[in-house]
Amino acid sequence: MSHRTRFAVAIIGTVAVMVAASAQNTGPVIDYVSTHKEMHRYETIYPEFHFHDPSGTVRFIHRELTSTNSPKPLTVRDGVIDISPEQQMRGTVYTGGWPCGPESYYATLQAFIMNLDGQKSNVVEYTIHCNGG
Question: Is 109 in contact with 63 (CB distance < 8 Å)?
Answer without folding.
Answer: yes
